[in-house]
Please model this.
Amino acid sequence: MNLSFEDVGLVECLLKSKHLVVVLGMKNVGSAQQPFLTPLKGAGVSKSAGIQPFRGTEGLLSVSSSAGSVLELFEKDTFQVRGQLAKVLPF
Amino acid sequence: MADLAKAAAQAQPTAFHQLLMALSFCRILGRTYTQNIDGLELKAGLTTVGDKPNCVQLHGSVMEVRCTQCNFTEHAHHHFSALSSGQLPPCPRCEVWIESRKSKGKRIGPKGGLLRPSIILYGESHPKSEDIESMQFADRLKADNLLVVGTSLQTYGSVRLIKELSRDIRSRGGKAYYVNLTSPPVQHVKCFDYILRSDCQDLAHRALDRLKMAELAGSITVDCDGRMGGFADFADLVNRSKVRKDMRPSWDWA
Model:
């Protein structure tokens, strides 16, 4: 069953909070448009093994779907942007 | 990258970003951890600096550039032209340091750094990792509710953050909510009390309406603390979200 905000009292819970923590992902923060994620593996940037969170963080090049046109731009120029990054960023 | 930064610079915060700011005004929001690099949270008025930073950019920001050597950081718009041409501009702080060493006749050592987009890529360290860990620790002790929005829980760092927050919050009687258009992976379902397959902008409009009513009724205290983002006052903030009925950001294609 798909619950509604009212079913679970979400809005009331938010408003009663004293120290609410929000974790935002890359989807659904702005539109129903699917996000665009590029892990940059195609640019020759490999993920290190055994990395610690926030030290060698997951490092997705992430773009919020709230920036709808950023997404469109990025989708169009995926390979170009990956290539540019591989070329200019020192690793 | 310059095109990406320019497009992000033109994008406007959505109703959900406005909700975050309104919750901050009402001293409800403790912290927002974001995986987005477009900086819209900051454009809405949240802050990553000061005594009480209420936003953590887990993957950095495309709106800033950072020196590859000294970590000097500044806004990307100063360097749009250089970045557009595919070049990384030299770091001004390193240049000053090199000139200073030269004038004193001292050894210079390595060349100065270059300014690169301040985003976190695979295998890279977050330049603020220690601060983030401190904030995460504080939130695990203080937070009373958790709202996870728009993530499919695929990345290890975010999942660990959410699991730890959820465990500590729920052990104190708080609730953990998950709002997304799709369900979370099965192995993470147990992290949440409630899973809602909905659009977060719908939630934002409802919550802003309730905040407006509560403020009019005097049942909440609004403390803007001089940080209004792009809004005239609290009423302007909660009212403006009504304009965007299509729940998409507005664009100004200059």
